[in-house]
Amino acid sequence: MLTSYHKKVIYSGTGRRKTSVARVNLTPGSGKIVINGIPGELYLQFSPNYLRIAYSPLHVLGLTSEYDIYVKTQGGGLTGQADAIRLGLARALCDINSDNRIMLKSEGLLRRDSRSKERKKYGLRKARKAPQYSKR
Questions:
Q1: Residue 18 falls inside a structural domain
Q2: Residue 64 domain-assigned?
Q3: Where do the segments described as Disordered lie (predicted)?
Q4: Which of 27, 35, 62, 81 could in theory staple to 20 by disulfide, Cβ–Cβ 3.0 to 4.6 A?
Q5: Rg of the Cα trace of the chain?
Q6: What does the pLDDT read at residue 8?
Q7: For residues 3 and 99, is the Cβ–Cβ distance under 8 A?
Q8: pLDDT per position as a tens digit, 15-73
């Protein structure tokens, strides 16, 4: 979705993973990332894995230092939030230029990962773990 906000062009996308939701806004800039008002590297605890996941759509397109990324995330943990940021960022990049969609889709970055925690069943300790069986 394209909106003009104080003469700045903003592209937005929403990503979800497990119980995490990320609303991503892109503006032309220098390549900084801000997540929930905190610098992205600090929020993702300087983890190379989380940072690689979050930045992957920009690396695929070669746009690492062309857009500033502002993200609001909620729910889940850092793994789910990093994956949600990746999907939201990929969707926002598709709004910028429809040619980006082909590259992102071939890398699998536009697919929502639908895996989530399985619910606990009665009589079991967890979703599938059963108490130890006693023959007598």
A1: yes
A2: yes
A3: 108-136
A4: 81
A5: 18
A6: 74
A7: no
A8: 999 999 999 999 998 889 999 999 999 999 999 999 999 999 999 999 888 999 999 99
Per-residue burial over 71-108, b if 16 or more Cβ lie within 10 Å, else e, is bebeebebebbbbbbbbbbbbbbbbbeeebbebbeeee
Amino acid identity of residue 50, one-letter, is Y
Q: How confident is the model at residue 4 (pLDDT cuts 50, 70, 90)?
A: low
Check residue 26 and report its DSSP letter: E
Which CA distances in Å does 101 have to 3, 44, 89?
20, 26, 12
Write phi, then psi, for 36 (nearest 5 degrees): 50, 40
Position 85: which residue type?
A: I
Check if the beta carbon of residue 55 is closer than 8 Å to that of residue 90.
Answer: no
